[in-house]
Amino acid sequence: MSFDAMWGQARNTAAARQQNSMQLNHADPGITTGGASDYTVTSPDLKAVGNDAQELFHHLDTDAFHAGATTGTASDQLTDDGFKTGLALSSAWFTWCSQAEALLSACAHIHNHLEDTVWTHKNHEETLVTNLSVEKLDKHFK
Prior knowledge:
This protein is mainly alpha-helical.
């Protein structure tokens, strides 16, 4: 039997509904199939992490690159004076910029992903609650 066939059978049998004990977060306890909640997403926690990532992004964006002009000037002056340290300083600056930009990108990705996760979970939960409510109503008309 294929997965789709088994899934369809599991969804459509009353016995499977009683065996699968899952409760939606924030759902009306009367709309459960029994058992305790097995999936929890707390929006405040996700938002806090996302906000911390956004705050780090903003601080890093303003503070990480402020030494660029003076570092470039120092590097050029050292190189012009014949010191190999000038090239090393320039190389270190470009490595720093690359790493800082990677961290900025990661912070933005974390913030955006967690914000999307909160909204997606909320929308899925509302859809499931609505579907289960309709299913509960439908059984009275059969």
